[in-house]
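Field log, afternoon session.

UNIT: design team B
ACTIVITY: writing a sequence onto a fixed backbone
BACKBONE:
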């Protein structure tokens, strides 16, 4: 018996023919929302049987929810791990789960091919959940489902791939993996520029399929590292900023990137040399590369960024991610406060594009690393 779990938004749209074939092979269907809260996971898990094959069609939030619900059916005590410790990351032991065939309908997250999930534990807090049991047993890319995405969502999805490749390239030391991620970054940058130059990227099926497959590939390259590799702090800063500012994580990442680059050596990629290596692949410095994305954030996003409670986002970020063995390591509370204060002040300016930092060469002599 196979359960087909899908995004409820498809109630108002006919699924592409390629996706309908998977519906026909399922014994039951479950429509779910795009959110991935603890309540959502509980609600879905009680509808599933242990070991029952699942087909999941949706964006990153839905795939994460299905992965967690499947793990919950095999490990009823999984929630106890969420209560352990104060950090923003939780690891679920074990390998048992329901077999999942993931069909992503958005670009960039790569949830269909990784062993991670982002869970909303409260209205303003998300937790990164890790575990071998969370990795789907298979995935399928259907370019037709991406045709309903807006140009903005397509560009942001590809930009998420750019950030992932750049972040990993910034911290890994294995020479083979570095070469492979440099190539992946170059491919992602090329796709992003193509999508930015095309007013209707949703009509370019080749572009959409290449972006979808590239997203999955970025989770497959062996890193060759013996210890857990944390990508640069941008993701973790954006996780808290987006939760409290009411914007998407990618919007928060775009807004934060120039400010993190400006502080290279204090925290960020670690050293100015690492950043320059990344920018040699991109072909320009990252703030300049991101200028179109920053300029297109929109008035409501800029207003929310200009209205953040600096102390609140600083405290939450420090609590979730700073400390021994955590992504932000020994970063100081005052450093985070200064970063978020500067971001709020800059986004209060009328001309957002002009307010973004464009140069960070003055920090080149500071090569201490918190990564």
């Amino acid at each position: 018996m196979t359960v087909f779990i899908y995004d409820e938004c498809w109630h108002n749209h006919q699924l592409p023919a390629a996706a309908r074939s998977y519906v026909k092979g399922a014994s039951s269907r479950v429509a779910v929302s795009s959110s991935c809260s603890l309540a959502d996971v509980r609600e879905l898990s009680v509808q599933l049987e242990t070991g029952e094959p699942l087909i999941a069609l949706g964006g990153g939030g839905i795939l994460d929810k299905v992965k967690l619900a499947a793990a919950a059916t095999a490990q009823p005590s999984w929630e106890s791990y969420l209560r352990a410790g104060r950090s923003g990351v939780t690891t679920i032991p074990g390998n048992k789960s329901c077999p999942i065939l993931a069909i992503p309908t958005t670009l960039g997250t790569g949830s269909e091919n990784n062993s991670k999930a982002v869970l909303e534990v409260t209205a303003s807090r998300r937790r990164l959940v890790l575990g071998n049991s969370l990795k789907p047993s298979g995935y399928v890319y259907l370019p037709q489902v991406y045709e309903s995405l807006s140009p903005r969502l397509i560009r942001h999805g590809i930009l998420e791939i750019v950030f992932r490749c750049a972040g990993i390239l910034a911290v890994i030391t294995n020479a083979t993996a570095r070469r492979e991620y440099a190539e992946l970054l170059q491919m992602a940058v090329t796709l992003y520029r193509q999508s930015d130059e095309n007013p209707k990227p949703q009509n370019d099926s080749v572009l959409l399929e290449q972006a979808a497959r590239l997203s999955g590939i970025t989770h497959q390259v062996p890193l060759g590292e013996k210890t857990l590799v944390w990508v640069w702090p941008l993701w973790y800063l954006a996780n808290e900023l987006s939760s409290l500012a009411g914007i998407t994580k990618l919007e928060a990442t775009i807004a934060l990137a120039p400010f993190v680059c400006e502080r290279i050596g204090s925290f960020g990629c670690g050293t100015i040399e690492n950043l320059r290596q990344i920018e040699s692949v991109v072909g320009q410095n990252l703030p300049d590369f991101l200028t179109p994305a920053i300029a297109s954030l929109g008035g409501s996003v800029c207003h929310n960024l200009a209205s953040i409670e600096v102390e609140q986002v600083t405290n939450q970020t420090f609590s979730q991610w700073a400390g021994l063995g955590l992504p932000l390591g020994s970063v100081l509370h005052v450093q985070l406060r200064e970063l978020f204060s500067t971001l709020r002040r800059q986004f209060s300016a009328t001309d957002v594009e002009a307010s973004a930092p464009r140069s960070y060469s003055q920090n080149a002599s500071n090569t201490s690393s918190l990564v």
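LOG NOTE: DSSP finds 15 helices and eight strands in the chain.
NEXT ACTIVITY: expression trials, pending approval
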